[in-house]
Amino acid sequence: MKATADNRFAPFFCAGAILLSADGAVGLLTVVIKQPLPLSLCSPALVADSAVGRKNWSSDHRICCHSALLVVLQVLYLTVVIRRFCCNSALLLSCRCHTMTSMEPTQIVNACVDVILSGVRLLQALGLDPGDGKDHAVLNSRKDLKEAFIHFMQKGAAAERFFSDAETFNHIARAASEYPGAQLYVGGNAALIGQKLATNPDLKILLCGPVGPKLHELLDDNVIVPPESMQETDEFHLILEYQAGEEWGQLRAPNANRFIFSHDLSNGAMNMLEVFVSSLDEFKPDLVVLSGLHMMEGQSREVREKRLLEAVTSISDIPTDIPIHLELASMTDQDLMSKIMHQVFPLVNSVGLNEQELLFLTQSASGPHASLASWNGVPDVGIVSDILFWILKKHGRTMDKASDLTRIHFHTLAYHVLATVDGYWGNQIAAVAAGARVAGTQACATETIDTDRVFLKAPLEFVTSHTEAPSKISLNPGDPVAQWHREGISFHFTPVLVCKDPIRTVGLGDAISAEGLLYSELYPQ
């Protein structure tokens, strides 16, 4: 293999093996499913009794759910075969095998059908001409749609917006679904994460929400949908994709990405959440993934605040021995983002987000680098590191805070960073590398990394901070996961082998987070 910037990192991500770190050893991990072992999966970071902490669970405790709970995994057993791996008390989340037990019907938000097509061609089919870009928090017309699409396409940035006018949206949706080459896929963060996890035949996923006939048809057989979650019609989200270098008038996209919009009232109002937490006692999950809180932006402020408070109450009642991961998505309302950060973050163990969500988060709470209006090209690693550090110090688990948050998985096109509070998570090298690998394979629709179809976009040198005395790191192709530490927080950085001509851009963040979770260790506390 030629030692070029395009492919010299490729061996690390190829061929069904992945680097693993445990007790200082580095080797190759192979997962083998064997017979059940009488072992619990793990225990999340337990917190002291607190008004804001999650409550202990009693056998007769039942609570109506108002949270955006999205994916539940029922875990039974694991074994692993590892070379050069000294096992410790932490159990590998990636090596658990899951099956379903009998359960009460549950209903979960944020499931839909994605209609994926060329954004430029759809706008042309709608009779719209290129022009100036402008961001809109809510789309009220075709003109707003065009301006918002141009605004983000010229940045090469992902975004998602609510379309307020039902009649206009339905007309656009019909035109999109009838456009030659338009494709229908599973959509919604919950369903996408569940669909990715379900590619492992030994996993069974419980997914609930507004599931119409088309979405039900598209779901993997390992994704279980209770009958009570079925509805007569599907919720459609329109995914307007563009390729790197694609032009429209004077506009040229710096890289491939997508713009999402919908008139999704079921997910936005979280209408199907009321029985989810009440099912946990019987279902006994070992992992809960939350998402869909961003969909509330389409609701009035009063409804939004009421539903968020109900969500917080329900999340608080999830048993403390069940790890919780929260996946963020594109938002425009700083007040809602700030409330999620202050009210929801302390109740979850892990958060996944991209560069747009990270910057919006710090802007919403006047955090570090909040004056930065937008990213200029590849996000600066030092700035990203500063914001991740601030989140975990301000809203994460510390000696002074009864918070469960101990892990953040940041993903952008060029690289990923996994930040964890020391003492709670292990196997970070494997987890961050697994996420980077799936980003390259899923975008190119290949089973393994094809070195002819990927390139390296990550910086080969960077500083780790802009707010304290930084370290300067140079990447080593033979060991490309860079590590640094800062006041009890560990950072693991890896470049991504970016697909040159991606087949599909939507859902990459969800796949990255799902894969990273599967390769993560959560130490018993």
UniProtKB/TrEMBL annotation:
Cross-referenced CDD domains: ADPGK_ADPPFK (cd01938)
Keywords: Glycolysis, Kinase, Magnesium, Metal-binding, Transferase
Family annotation (InterPro entries): ADP_PFK/GK (IPR007666), Ribokinase-like (IPR029056)
Biological process, per Gene Ontology: glucose metabolic process; glycolytic process
PROSITE patterns the record matches: ADPK
A molecular function GO annotation: metal ion binding
The keyword Magnesium is assigned to this record: yes
A single GO cellular-component term on record: endoplasmic reticulum
Protein known as: ADP-dependent glucokinase
Species name: Chelonia mydas
